[in-house]
Structures are given as C-alpha cells and as structure tokens.
Amino acid sequence: MANVTVYNMEGKEVGTMELNDAVFGVEINEHLVHLAVVRQLANKRQGTQKAKTRSEVSGGGRKPWRQKGTGHARQGSIRAAQWTGGGIIFAPTPRDYEVKINKKERRAALKSALTSKVQDNKLIVVDELKLDQIKTKEMQKVLTNLKAEKALVVTAQDDKNVILSARNITDVQTATPGTINVYDVMKHGALVVTKDAVATIEEVYA
C-alpha cells in the first residue's frame, strides 16, 4: 500500500496514511479515463440547437421570375439557401448527445484518475478542514499553505463554510466522495482530500 503524508491546515506534516491499493494503486487505464471525460462533457450538452431548412422557412412558394429572358440567374424560390432569409443547408436540429459507458468502466476510470494523482504526488491529504466562518481569504490561506492553488477539495460531508469560502476562488472546486468524477479530478492540478473523505472513498469504491 502507498503511504502519503498527512498535513494540517497550516501545511505542516502531522503523520502518514496508508492508501488502499484497490482504489489508489490500480493499473491506470488511459482509454477508460478518456471515455469517462468524453461521456461527462457530452452529457452536459443540451442539444437544443435548431435552425430552419428551406422546407421550414415561410414564403417562397412561387418562382420569383420566369426561367428565361430576364437576365437574372434562374431561381425557383426566394427561400433557397443563397437568398437572405432563406433556409440553412444541413441545419442543426435538436439531438441527444448522451454517451454511455457501464458502471464498472466508470468506477475503473475514477480509480485510474485517483491513482494518477497519487503517482504524480498531487494527492494532498489533510487531517481536517474546518472553517469557523465563511471567509474566502481563510480558505485561500489554507490552499496556499498546502501549495494547492488549482485544486479539487473533497470533504467527507457537505460543509457549508468550506463550500462557500471556496466558491469565489479561481480554479478551486469542492466535492464530496459521492460527487467526485473523473473530469473534475483530472482537470484540477491538486486533489485535496480530508482523512475522513479518503476513508469514505475507499469504503465506496474498493
């Protein structure tokens, strides 16, 4: 099992912690990580874009002028694509962008992402993360002490003070063990996790 250093909120070492290899020491599957990221980004898309084709725009029911003898190019409708106000060729229509991968693949991808953070020394374990009040400056101070400027902060439970204190810090996001996902883990440079959150993650995903 891998050992990681445990820090306090001042950034000082206060001990070590063993990580479960079933979650934080698996063989990294880059393909599954890629699929999981593609899935999440695709599933965010609304798919509500719409433009009208020439069969849907109004007007243009008759030929604008006769075929020959006018000096103009021949035209069949004023709603053809080359006309102002005409229809769009291959117009986008509402569609579902959903990408599906099965549950085992999602879990394996998340384990690969967590393992990559351990191998890159980007997993920072904190003994506890508690703020007495909602204060962005205090949260920023903690992250600076931990040398985690661009971070995903994972707490065992929703902590209002931590969530609201981190909300206005650029490139910092909060989550709980039940809401972490591959995209957020890979997007942020550091993964700051409390000891309780590590235990919960191991319990859920091992």
**Alpha-carbon distance between the termini?**
13 Å
**Broad structural category:** alpha/beta
Instruction: Tell me the fraction of residues in β-strands, as a range.
Output: 5-15%
What Rg, in angstroms, do the CA atoms define?
27 Å
Helix share, percent: 25-40%
Mean pLDDT: 93
Number of strands: 6
Query: Strand order within the widest sheet?
Result: 2-1-3-6-4-5
The CATH architecture of the largest domain can be given as 3-Layer(aba) Sandwich
Key attributes of the depicted protein:
206 residues; alpha/beta; Ribosomal Protein L4, Chain: A; 6-stranded mixed beta sheet; 7 helices; 6 strands; 34% helix
Task: Note down, in words, how this protein is organized.
There is one protein chain. Strands 2-1-3-6-4-5 form a six-stranded mixed β-sheet. The protein starts with a strand and ends with a helix. The protein has two domains: 3-45 and 100-205, Ribosomal Protein L4, Chain: A, CATH 3.40.1370; 47-96, no CATH class. The radius of gyration is 27 Å and the shape is elongated. Helix 5 (160-166) links the parallel strand 4 and strand 5. The chain has 206 residues and is of the alpha/beta class. 34% of the residues lie in helices and 14% in strands.
